[in-house]
Structure formats: C-alpha cells, structure tokens
Amino acid sequence: MEKKVRLIKMLLMMLICGSAWISAESTADIDSYRRLMLENGLGATPPMGWNSWNHFFCNIDETTIMETADALVSTGLAELGYKYVNIDDCWAEQERDSEGYLVPNKKTFPSGIKALADYIHSKGLKLGIYSDAGFQTCSNKMPGSLGYEQKDAETFASWGIDYLKYDNCNNNYSEPTKRYPPMSQALIKTGRPIFFSLCEWGEMHPAFWGAKLGNSWRTTTDISDTWDSMISRADQNEAYANFAGPGGWNDPDMLEVGNGGMTHKQYIVHFSLWAISKAPLLIGCDVRDLSNNTYKILGNKEVIDVNQDPLGIQAKKVKKDGDLEVWAGPLSKSRTVVLLLNRSVIRSTISAYWADLGVPADTSMEVRDLWKHKTYDKGFKNQLKFTMEGRSCRMFILTPMS
Ligand code: GLA
C-alpha cells in the first residue's frame, strides 16, 4: 500500500515537473521521490571532483593521483567542492590473486590502494575507483566484477573507497538491470557509504531505473574533446531531465574543460550546460597544470552554486529557434537560472520571454550575469535579450524583485 502511494506521488511529481516549474515549496514532493532512491545518503547534490580518464586514459600511477590531490587542494578547487579523486580504468593487475581478490597494478600502484586512500583522506578528499559489470573492464587490461560483486565491494570498502564508477564492457549479454543490482546491493551490504555511479552509456535508458540502484547514471556514450561531441551529449541528457533529483543524477559524462580541443567560449558553454543540467562536475584535465582560463571556468563559484543548488532540479531546453536556444530551470529561493545558447557560428541575438520561463509577465527581475559577475540594477520586465558570438552563451540568475 505504502509502495502504491509513493508511486502515485512520483508520477504526480513527474507530471508537475514536465508541465511547469516546481516551486521551492514543493520540496516535500522531492523528499517522497527521494525515498525511492538508493538509501546510502549520498548525492544530495551532484558529485564534484576529478577523474583520470579524459586526460590520462590508461597512463595513470599513484604519483599522478597523489599530485592531483595536492593540486586540487593548492589551487582551491577542493575548497570549492571538488572532493572526489577518481581513478578510472587500468589500475589493477590483469589477473586476480589465487583467492580471487583484485590486485593493484604492481608497477603503477606499488603502495596499494589502501595507502593511496589514506593519503587522499589526509588531504580532506575522497577516493573513487572503477570496475565493470562484466568479465573485463573496457581497456581489457584488468578484470571486471561480474560474479565477484560481494568480494570486490568488500575489498573497496576495506581500502576506504568512497565512490565506484561501474562500467558496462565485456559482459555476458544479460541486461544491465540484472548486472548492476548485485553490485549496488553488495556496496550497501559493506556498510560503508560508497557513491555508486552507473556507467551504462544510456543504452537501456538507465534514467528510468537507475535511481533505485545508484547515485548517478550515464545517459550517453563517451564524450570527446570537441564541440559536437559535447553539445550532443548535453542534448541527449536533457531528454531525461525529469528523472534527476537529490540522490540520483543524470550523467552526460565527465568534463573536457582544459584539455585543449575547444575554445575558451566553448568550454564556458560546456561548463554552464553541465552546471544547469545538475550533471556530476568531474574535472577531466590535468589539474597540476591549470591555465588561468581553465581555472576561471572550473573555479566559477557562482556557476558551481547553480549546480549544487539544494532544490536539485535539472534545467531544460525551454525554447528553440534553429540554433538559438534558451535553457532554464528553477533554483531555490524562487530564483530561475537561464542560459541563452547560440549554437550557430555567427553572432546572434537571443530573447527569453518570461512566458518561456514560466514566470508571470509583469514580474520585475533582478538579473545576475554569472560569467561577467555583474548584477543589472534596473529590474528586467517580460524578457531578457542579448547578442552573443557564435558558439557561446550567457548565463543568468533571475530573482523576483518584491
Ligand atoms: C568506457 C567508459 C569511459 C571510461 C573507459 C575506460 O568507455 O564509458 O568513461 O571509463 O570505458 O576504459
């Protein structure tokens, strides 16, 4: 009976979110929705941190991971919320030991993962690791956890792991809805809160079932460091906006900001879209070697605050006129975040009308520009209208002036 009531509440909540903004006052609905999620207490806001894959691929070792942790602290990024230091594929020996345990690669992680976790924790950070719901991981360089879920979960917990990314390669062709639950349950059974990130690439629409198993779920295949790759992942991820919320997030893949394949303005678009989409903010560049421009993007506290807003509602594309788009979503304290996105290559003007945003037309709004760090003092009425260069965006928070 209780289950039925929860289900009805969840459906109601989806209807509300689909048709109009949910107000800050409706957080009670979110709380009931949240009870259907994985109860490990993690992911109240999207996770923030770093992951080795987008920059280093398989070329990782314990020194790089430790230096990255040091850099997160010394640059101030850790203080801004980037707490997870996540090791991706290729950290283990090709074979398990004679008792079936995973073995850290003896050449690249000679001190072992427990020692690394101790180091990371001593810096006030958290350590993430990677495995796969198959026989081998995607690199084919180490075993996956299929059939070894409990053993591996216990190993991770005993090492002090805080986050597990769980990939989808080299499996037995059974459905992910069969292969992901055993690891989800095994992690819970360890008693250690471990953020569970489902990396199923969106194949079987994990947004529909992921919240019961994990704290985030990939909605797309792998990102690469190009405009087309980035923007198409934002689009695919947007389709699932109604399924994200505190405890479980849509994941359009990790950030490429700072890896060199896009212009500064394009990286601003990338970071802005990820922030408003309540995506995990997992830095994918070498933070030991950050340029000022990269730092200005990844370290923009105002944009990070949008991502970490306690309401946890993913913004949506609310208007599209060819390559000119408006994305928007509600924030706590009756505020609205708006992104004017010029996807074309030419300078263009974009208007967002209050009607597009679900705001009464005569509301006078204070407008804060999150990239120029500037507040427009005169109240805006009925619309926002700005001209911007090709492949760039403007990002604002609107606050009603009472
Ligand atoms: C898959 C994942 C990537 C990365 C690689 C590692 O492609 O989607 O994010 O983890 O595997 O091999």
TrEMBL record:
GO terms for molecular function: alpha-galactosidase activity. GO terms for cellular component: plant-type cell wall. Residues 1-24 form the signal peptide. One of its GO terms (biological process) is carbohydrate metabolic process. Pfam families: Melibiase_2, Melibiase_C. It catalyses: Hydrolysis of terminal, non-reducing alpha-D-galactose residues in alpha-D-galactosides, including galactose oligosaccharides, galactomannans and galactolipids. Residues 321-397 form the Alpha galactosidase C-terminal domain. It is an enzyme of class 3 (hydrolase). It comes from the Eukaryota. Its EC number is 3.2.1.22. Keywords: Disulfide bond, Glycosidase, Hydrolase, Signal. Belongs to the glycosyl hydrolase 27 family. PANTHER family: ALPHA-GALACTOSIDASE, ALPHA-GALACTOSIDASE/ALPHA-N-ACETYLGALACTOSAMINIDASE. This is Alpha-galactosidase. It comes from Rhynchospora tenuis.
